[in-house]
Task: structure prediction
Amino acid sequence: MARVRKLITPLLALVALAALALAASGCGTTDADPQRGRTLFIQKCSECHALAQAGAVGQVGPSLDHAFAAAREEGNDSDTIEGVVKAQVEYPRESNGNSAVSMPADIVTGQDLDDVAAYVGEWAGVPGAAPPKVPGGPGAQVFANNSCAGCHTFAAAEAGGVTGPNLDEELQGEEQAHVEEMIVNPNAEIVKGYPPNVMPQNYEQLLSAKEIEDLAKYLIENAAGGGKTKG
Ligand code: HEC
Ligand code: HEC
Result:
């Protein structure tokens, strides 16, 4: 944690200065839409970053909750964190010694960047943050809480991710046990046309047996509108 603190503090100072300059010039910001930013975050950032309010569990980059918890506790407000996020997306800091996992610049720009930064600013490091409640029962909630929507299309959850296969198309008539296996052990069988090691390998650690069961049941029951469950 100390390492993270050390990296963030100078950035915060810079952003605070920039904010002062902006305020002085009378040029305020924006009508950012954090709700839209949340969807964009799940689509564009959750593969690499954890953020509790988004249900994001990516592990390539730092957890944004951990990254900003100390800053928030020290009294930096959402606007300040928003500024740090914008700066990082526009000019990503080079990764510590491992350029293979550096964050690419300008993953989002313009209004999209405003919205994502406003969203992360609102929630990163907020104690006890959790994804909002969704309709559809316990399995739907597990799906919403674990960034499945960032990578998969699934109509019942209004999920439009395209990094992984379309679950409406793939899961019709699947067996419960097989779907559970696909979730906890995604590399056992790689879906044709998709790369291995993209779907997180740690859902078995993140989720309880009951949650995995609820999730698989929800997917089978709702694939392509449901009604195609075997047995
Ligand atoms: C391909 C993976 C990847 C994606 C996608 C990605 N990031 Fe990153 N991000 C990283 C890595 C790696 C770092 C750490 C850089 C370093 O070592 O300092 C990072 C650092 C950050 C930091 C700084 C955290 C800190 O500790 O100071 C922020 C903020 C951030 N990313 C926000 C975002 C946002 C917002 C998005 C989506 C628009 C995003 N990232 C997408 C990989 C990614
Ligand atoms: C970072 C992207 C990513 C996330 C997050 C992700 N997946 Fe995947 N998923 C993939 C990719 C890519 C594949 C195809 C490659 C493979 O088979 O591992 C896949 C495959 C699958 C399959 C197999 C589909 C088939 O046609 O056999 C299922 C089921 C699945 N994912 C469910 C989930 C669920 C449920 C979640 C959330 C708990 C989730 N995935 C989260 C990327 C992701």
Notes: The chain has two domains: 2-123, 138-225. The chain has eleven helices and four strands. Residues 47, 146-148, 150-152, 163-165, 167, 170, 179, 182-183, 186-187, 190-191, 194, 196, 198-200, 203, 215 surround heme C (ligand 2) (CB under 6 Å). The chain has a mean pLDDT of 86.
